Amino acid sequence: MTTTQPIDFWFDFSSPYGYLLAEKIDAVAAKYGRTVSWHPILLGIIFQATGSAPLTLQNPAKASYSLHDFARSARFMGLPYQHPTNFPLATQNAARGYYWLAGQDVGLAKQFALAAYRALFVDNRDISAPETVVEIATNLGVDRSSLETALQTPEIKARLKNEVDAALQAGVFGSPHVLIDGEPFFGADRLPQIEQWLKTGGF
Amino acid sequence: MTTTQPIDFWFDFSSPYGYLLAEKIDAVAAKYGRTVSWHPILLGIIFQATGSAPLTLQNPAKASYSLHDFARSARFMGLPYQHPTNFPLATQNAARGYYWLAGQDVGLAKQFALAAYRALFVDNRDISAPETVVEIATNLGVDRSSLETALQTPEIKARLKNEVDAALQAGVFGSPHVLIDGEPFFGADRLPQIEQWLKTGGF
């Protein structure tokens, strides 16, 4: 099967499994000649709309297991992981930063997204703070004052809101969520199925 | 690492992912010289205790995805799957049958468990009915009237209750749940991690 339609990848910057999949998805897609369109979303709004909750705020047994599984799944996938002190956390600044950067340079926006994820899940930095988001971007050569201004514009706020609405419309109920030619995959643990799907065109 | 401690495997007979893992777990364990102790439980009680709900009774987006994923995950694992008409369903008869059989012959009890799972998830049979459970067992050579009597004894009811209590004590919050030398794994999708853990003694 050949197609040029990008794969859609929805994630929240506070999602541990979103971080794990973000580190892998583009390389797996590229193996099969596909590109990936990244869509940061806000799980708070998704969970409110669907009546769900973060794993670590569900029952104590599931919360405790999830904390253990985040770190073990990272090791299994060969990635570093340190659970953040401030968790869960607000991610609208990181998401807005992503969309503003993506309007100029998608490659740079993805670099920023990975840097933000690593800041949170490897270096335990509080990326809910706009100044942290700005610092991560300026380390990649982004102009500080342009970004500071952009984070507060109605256009970028509307863009994020529209992306969250579109995610809900597409059936997204958590993070990460991947859509390949109409086929949905939820969770970093579906990466082997994603790869098999790309390899075979469906199974 | 060598150890003779059996791996614990908790599952509910109404759990699609429990069925998928039941088809694989003993063979994977045997590759690494390990045996598996099977523990059917009642998710209704586990969910009541932990404040959770079946995937197909959660929000519509997650329910719809889950139905799709049950079948796709089965195909990915090379197993047949047909979603049952009566679902979710009560499984205390199947669980009681398992424990009564296990008191006599664990191998036969596992054969019965797999036959009950296939009856439900391949042949769309309603295994909530005691007569279906009895028929599945008699097809394996089990004495009908002994089993019919056993399903109603206080001893076997207490055994199942104790197993559910022990599962909650062990941190079980869903199905399937596996414990290897103190390390918990939730979900059929953790089979690659289970195998890696058995192969390396932990990672």
Number of strands of chain A: 4
Averaged pLDDT of chain A: 96
Rg result of chain A: 16 Å
Q: Name the structural class of chain A.
A: alpha+beta
Task: Please give the structural blueprint.
The structure is a homodimer of 203-residue chains.
Chain A: E1 7-11, H1 16-22, H2 25-31, E2 36-40, H3 43-50, H4 60-76, H5 92-102, H6 106-121, H7 130-138, H8 144-150, H9 154-169, E3 177-180, E4 183-186, H10 191-200
Parallel strand pairs in A: 1-2
Antiparallel strand pairs in A: 1-3, 3-4
What this model shows, in words?
The structure is a homodimer of 203-residue chains. With 203 residues, chain A is an alpha+beta fold. Helices cover 53% and strands 9% of the residues of chain A. Chain A is built from 10 helices and 4 strands, in the order βααβαααααααββα. Chain A has helices spanning 16-22, 25-31, 43-50, 60-76, 92-102, 106-121, 130-138, 144-150, 154-169, 191-200; strands at residues 7-11, 36-40, 177-180, 183-186. A 4-stranded mixed β-sheet of chain A has the order 2-1-3-4, with helices on both faces. In chain A, strand 3 and strand 4 (183-186) form a beta hairpin. In chain A, helix 5 crosses helix 9. Chain A is globular. The A-B interface holds A 50-52, 58-59, 61-62, 64-65, 68-69, 72-73, 75-76, 168, 171-174, 184, 186-187, 189-190, 192-193, 196, 203 and B 50-52, 58-59, 61-62, 64-65, 68-69, 72-73, 75-76, 168, 171-174, 184, 186-187, 189-190, 192-193, 196, 203.
